[in-house]
TrEMBL record:
<protein>
    <submittedName>
        <fullName>ROK family protein</fullName>
    </submittedName>
</protein>
<dbReference type="InterPro" id="IPR000600">
    <property type="entry name" value="ROK"/>
</dbReference>
<dbReference type="Pfam" id="PF00480">
    <property type="entry name" value="ROK"/>
</dbReference>
<dbReference type="InterPro" id="IPR043129">
    <property type="entry name" value="ATPase_NBD"/>
</dbReference>
């Protein structure tokens, strides 16, 4: 029987922390990410939240298998470092998180890209447990992706394989993205892009979909363009990775009842899949799949 794992999911708005054992989250909490001010200043708060959860469960560090962090950005999972990150937690590449984990908790440590972690959680415990070719697409502050091909998680030579779906170019004449490219999926439709358009009084996609339902013309235009962008991204992911299923997750999927049917319709119409249709489904654990994924990775590392 494996020991519990401390799993941390570093979101741009909230940091989720859980104690996970097998396929059960024993207890969890969230703290503000305050990601614009960096990760270093959040580490004491993360430490306090972890220790509070352990006290609730009457656990000591000796009872814990290890600690795993799911982080945005490009992650070297071998050297256990954040190589590059887009604005959120901008100081993170300069922090030795493995050393912090050892000094703070005396635990083994692993780190992985957050979309890959979420995909592993869904593959091992959620929506895709019986499949070997799976893509996850995360719609949130940005647009993330990850891929499992023939039962193997894609990482690539430089740890970017599978995770840059949000930076597929779908409008080569478009605006410059945070990554430096033009017309990326994220630049065309994501929460950060929505927030950067100060001409519109819309701060999130919940408001966009609600106002569109009420017939607001600006909201309708944003909704329709965003649906087209996300469908185009899904088609690109299908053509790139040949999955059996695309799992959709992320904060925007609160409006999934609008998003899933549209993407399903567009992929069935436009993706080149002569064998049949790729399943388009919502994540089984939309708010916690990355915690499950880090639990799996910590236990795999310890074998």
């Amino acid at each position: 029987m494996s020991k519990p794992v401390i799993a941390i999911d570093m979101g741009g708005t909230m940091i989720k922390i859980g104690i996970v054992k097998e396929d059960i989250i024993m207890s969890s909490t969230s703290i503000s990410a305050d990601s614009g001010n960096g990760l270093r200043q959040r580490l004491p708060h993360i430490e306090g939240a972890v220790k509070d959860l352990m006290a609730q469960e009457n656990l000591s560090c000796k009872d814990i298998a290890g600690l795993g962090i799911a982080s945005p950005g490009i992650i070297d999972s071998n050297r256990k470092k954040i190589l590059s990150i887009d604005k959120k937690f901008g100081d993170a590449p300069g922090i030795d998180l493995e050393d912090w984990c050892r000094r703070t908790f005396d635990l083994s440590f692993c780190i992985e890209n957050d979309a890959r972690a979420a995909l592993l959680g869904e593959w091992k415990y959620g929506r895709a447990t019986d499949l070997d070719n799976v893509v996850l697409m995360s719609l949130g502050t940005g647009v993330g992706s990850a891929a499992i091909v023939e039962g193997q998680l894609l990482r690539g030579k430089h740890f970017t394989a599978g995770i840059l779906g949000g930076h597929f170019v779908i409008n080569y004449k478009g605006e410059v993205c945070n990554c430096g490219n033009k017309g990326c999926v994220e630049t065309e439709a994501s929460t950060w892009k929505l927030n950067s358009n100060h001409k519109l009084p819309l701060s999130d996609y919940k408001a966009v979909f609600q106002l569109a339902e009420e017939g607001d013309s600006a909201a309708l235009a944003i909704r329709d363009q965003s649906l087209e962008v996300w469908a185009a991204c899904a088609i690109n992911l299908i053509h790139a990775y040949d999955p059996e299923i695309i799992i959709l997750t992320g904060g925007i999927m609160g409006s999934g009842s609008h998003i899933i049917p549209y993407i399903r319709q567009q992929t069935e119409k436009h993706a080149w899949t002569p064998w049949g249709n790729v399943k388009i489904e919502a994540a089984a654990f939309p708010s916690s799949s990355a915690l499950y994924g880090m639990n799996y990775l910590v236990n795999s590392q310890n074998k």
